[in-house]
Amino acid sequence: MFDVFGSVKGLLKIDQVCIDNNIFRLHYKATVIVLVAFSLLVTSRQYIGDPIDCIVDEIPLNVMDTYCWIYSTFTIPNRLTGRIGQDMVRPGVAASVDGQDEKKYHKYYQWVCFALFFQAMLFYVPRYLWKTWEGGRIKMLVQELNCPIVNEESKNDRKKLLVDYFFSNLRLQNFYAYRFFICEVLNFINVVGQIFFMDYFLDGEFSTYGTDVLRYTEMEPEERIDPMARVFPKLTKCTFHKYGPSGTIQKLDGLCVLPLNIVNEKIYVFLWFWFIILSVLSGISLVYRAAVIMGPKLRLYLLRARSRLASQEQIEVIAKKCHIGDWFVLYQLGKNIDPLIFKEIINDLAKRLEGKEAV
Predict the structure, then answer these.
(1) Does a structural domain hold residue 154?
(2) How many CA atoms lie within 13 Å of 126's alpha carbon, on the beta-carbon side?
(3) Does some domain include residue 247?
(4) Contact assessment for residue 343 and residue 307, using Cβ atoms and an 8 Å cutoff
(5) CA distances (Å), origin 41, targets 4, 45, 179, 197
(6) What is the H or E stretch that residue 117 is in?
(7) Which neighbouring-strand residues pair with 73?
(8) How many domains does the chain have?
(9) How many other C-beta atoms lie within 10 A of the C-beta of residue 359?
(10) Which candidate, 95, 75, 322, places its Cα nearest to that of 205?
């Protein structure tokens, strides 16, 4: 198992300098790790076995397996209930009547590993954009001030450089902040869009998949239809056509076991709940961000909470002089710099700003 997921370990690395927030990290770190791990899992035959095993008379098993994997298998949706062993072999697997029983073909299992990996890349796109746009600014400004033990002379030099930078760039950093806000919007659009993408990928079954699974556990045994068996059947049918001895086309029905769907059904139950939770949290984050942009008093309160060791009067001086971009940079610095050192920076910056005329 460690061999399979060893390549994911690099994603678990914790950044020394934080340039985003917890909701953002849920997208590019937690979700990417989950999707890449699932993508690796569904390709690991040592834990699942062959992804498909088919049985049919007169056809070599390996040929039938390859044929049904390429050309898909099918179930019969209106034969999902009944007596197993009498009315049907398994839910959805029974003798079909032409013109009466509709066949539902299953091709998604060929693409699950690719779809999961593609989704992981999409979740990393906003992070990549933000890292590119951010350009290491916060890391450069922190200058190892996140360490509580710093040489006094070195600390004073770095504090002075930081205050000088902030003073000279006052009210010029809005574009920096708005690019981060754009990435937060992209995160929300991405997670909602991926819910629709997976619904399309699973033929319209994903949007209600989680609620159907919950509802299934509460129904009477003789009435309920297992949604996991409907969306991810473990036993399906496959029709093989070939020429007979006289040149006529012979139709051979086979049964196919799909062990991979034992894993797929659990993966997509988890992803349903995870994506719903993530989209709700991302939506709340956007509401919070809109309140921050439109509410100077909220920004003042948040800056006070971030620099609680500093004088409240000095924080108010800074808040009055700052635009949204200045506040955002200062708030990000407060996440990374040691609280005692950040208090000193706030004091020095407030004194510097008190003598500056309003622009």
Answers:
(1) yes
(2) 27
(3) yes
(4) yes
(5) 7, 8, 35, 21
(6) helix 112-134
(7) 106
(8) 1
(9) 8
(10) 75
CA-to-CA distance for 285 and 271, rounded, in angstroms? 20
Q: Which residue, among 143, 146, 144, 133, has the nearest Cα to 173 in the 3D structure?
A: 133
Domain span at 70: 2-354
Q: How far apart are CA 359 and CA 199, in angstroms?
A: 52
Tokens of 336: 């990374």
Q: Which amino acid is it at 149?
A: I
Angle between helices 324-336 and 312-321 (to 10 degrees): 140
**Assign residue 328 a region: left if phi > 0, alpha if psi is -120 to 50, beta otherwise?**
alpha
- The residues pairing with 240 across neighbouring beta strands, listed in sequence order, are 252
Q: In 126-153, which positions are buried (b, 16+ CB within 10 angstroms) versus exposed (e)?
A: bbeebeeebeeebbebbbebbeeebeee
Three-state DSSP at 242 gives strand
Q: Which of 32, 40, 254, 43 shows the shortest CA–CA distance to 127? A: 32
User: What is the pLDDT tens value at each position of the chain, 359 positions in all?
Assistant: 445 455 556 666 777 889 999 999 999 999 999 999 898 888 876 556 678 888 887 788 888 888 888 888 888 777 666 666 566 667 667 666 665 667 788 777 778 889 999 999 999 999 999 999 999 999 999 887 877 777 888 888 888 899 999 888 888 899 999 999 999 999 999 999 999 999 998 888 888 888 877 777 665 545 556 677 778 888 888 888 778 777 778 788 888 888 888 888 889 999 999 999 999 999 999 999 999 999 999 999 999 998 888 888 888 888 888 899 999 999 999 999 988 889 989 998 998 888 754 43
Asked whether residue 359 is domain-assigned, the answer is no
Structural domain includes residue 285: yes
In this structure, are residues 145 and 341 in contact, taking their beta carbons and an 8 Å threshold? yes
pTM of the model: 0.86
Helix (H/G/I), strand (E/B), else coil: 296: helix
Beta bridge partners of 321: none
